[in-house]
Amino acid sequence: NDRIQLFASNGQYKTTFKLNEGIKRPSGICSNRDGTQFYVSCYLGGCVRAFNVGY
To answer: Is the pLDDT of residue 46 over 70?
Structure first.
């Protein structure tokens, strides 16, 4: 469904991001320490995409 849902460490829902069509078969996700950016690895594209979190 090309979406990523973000939750706080206590399980509280934060936001949903729609992935652009440039990401094919996402295979990993992580965030920076302060939670302002997250990164998605794209297996078929051989790249990592960065997204800014603005909630």
So the answer is: yes
